[in-house]
Design brief:
This protein has 183 residues and is an alpha+beta fold. The strands form two sheets. The protein has a three-stranded antiparallel β-sheet with strand order 3-5-4. Strands 1-2 form a two-stranded parallel ribbon. Strand 1, helix 1 and strand 2 form a beta-alpha-beta unit. It is globular, with a radius of gyration of 18 Å. It starts with 21 loop residues before the first strand and ends with a strand. The mean pLDDT is 90.
């Protein structure tokens, strides 16, 4: 007997489809996916067992640096354009900053928030964070073009998107830009 089931539903507009309550609900990189994020959180609260937990793991799409190498970089431009294009599609790419207020409004208590500056490449002198940066760099470089819809909305042509993606990947691989993203 399987202990895993996949269900497709619309968490914003549909009624809750499960006949039971959950002990744990996890959302990763979902904030920008929803227009009515507060509704998703409220429905989650209403369908958690007493003592249940909800966990979010989301970035806020506002990169930053610990030196001036981030300023004017392709990585910084990418973050800015994704936020602009997301806004034009009704998506707040910085929504993770509001999760705490949504949780409180839904009725959650004992809220714990941890913000971690995640390096986007392997520039760190600390071995653990260098490894994290290497993993992030590999994945981040691959999904730059998956935000094409937002980049087009922000005014870029397909050729410009490909050029920006190549420059972002170059900056990540050379580790010349000490860029972070909060998660």
């Amino acid at each position: 007997m399987s202990n895993c089931e996949f269900v497709l539903e619309n968490s914003e507009t549909s009624e809750w489809v499960f006949p039971y309550k959950f002990d744990y609900i996890h959302l990763r990189n979902m904030g920008p996916c929803f227009s009515a994020f507060a509704t998703v959180i409220r429905k989650s609260y209403e369908n958690l067992s007493s003592g249940g937990w909800i966990e979010f793991n989301d970035g806020n799409w506002v990169g930053f640096g610990d030196d001036d190498s981030f300023d004017g970089s392709a990585i910084q431009r990418f973050f800015t354009l994704v936020r602009e294009g997301g806004a034009l599609h009704g998506r707040d790419m910085t929504k993770s900053r509001s999760v705490r207020s949504y949780l409180i409004a839904a009725g959650f208590v004992d809220i714990r928030e941890h913000t971690i500056p995640v390096p986007l490449s392997g520039f760190s002198t600390d071995a653990r964070w260098r490894r994290v940066g290497q993993y992030v760099s590999a994945t981040f470089g691959e999904y730059v073009t998956t935000y094409r819809k937002f980049l087009v909305a922000a005014g870029l042509t397909s050729t410009e998107i490909d050029g920006l993606a190549a420059e972002v990947r170059r900056e990540l691989s050379t580790r010349e830009v000490r860029a972070f993203m909060s998660a």
